Glutathione S-transferase C-terminal domain-containing protein
Amino acid sequence: MTYVTAGKEYARDSRYLTTRITADGRDGFPVEPGRYRLVVSRACPWASRAVVVRRLLGLEEALPMAVAGPVHDERSWTFDLDPGGRDPVLGIERLQEAYLARDPGYDRGITVPAVVDVPTGKVVTNDFARITIDMSLEWTAFHRPGAPELYPAALRPEIDAVNEVVYADVNNGVYRAGFAGSQEAYDAAYARLFARLDELSDRLARSRYLVGDTITEADVRLFTTLVRFDAVYHGHFKCNRRKLTEMPVLWAYARDLFQTPGFGDTVHFGHIKQHYYRVHSDINPTGIVPAGPDLSGWLAPHEREVLGGRPFGDGTAPGPVAPGERVPAVVP
């Protein structure tokens, strides 16, 4: 598979299926517990946002999850982790089948996360930025008792503003560096990435969380990039001014979130490394997956409590991870 176009900067295809699942069903898809299936890969940072938010809000029973394997080919993500290589609910081998059921002429990316309507087997949406917001705003009838407010009305303008620059320069910025097809494109992406990380570090030196004094959607979005930084982005994507572990404020912030129920207990470092180093064959043609980095530091004390803040606001932490959704511990 080819991800780099020689002489060109990387441009993400952002043509998503934007149909929404809402409480009033105005797009034809009302919120109904058990009707939909959230398809993810734990390797993917965009899908990992949905996994974290779903767990924080307690939507595990209302919105069941299918986990695709960490690698894919030109056609699609596959369900090779399931017996017989088929999702046990949708009965399909490839996520592509659900996209083609929605649109036989579908010619865009077969991406995760995707929400599939189980009765029809059709993808409803793969609009990853909207999926997590709608989990917060449209699925409220099925939130667990004590679920946090991840997108509070009073803070939405600030959350949106933070999310916009974090997406452009960090979430997508690492890809713009890693998939750059020219030195100039790489240099520009690298500079933007680290300038923004420096700004975020300054902000987080004064505040435990990005917006307000509780975890919000903004923290979820930054976390899923930071948790992959040393494992894949630093080396594989050449984002190597410093490792995350060499950026004291961001490293402590990331550890704080990782050790918060709902974050680190959704992260599968094995899947992350398998995906990036095996799938991106044009920038890692040997397919060799590095043995490192050492993950034990993720459990080291972060001392961010001195900044105050209440992770879940007036809510509570989610309970234990469901047995079928557990990930390997970073330190066995």
Remarks:
- The chain has a mean pLDDT of 97.
- The chain has two domains: 36-142, 153-325.
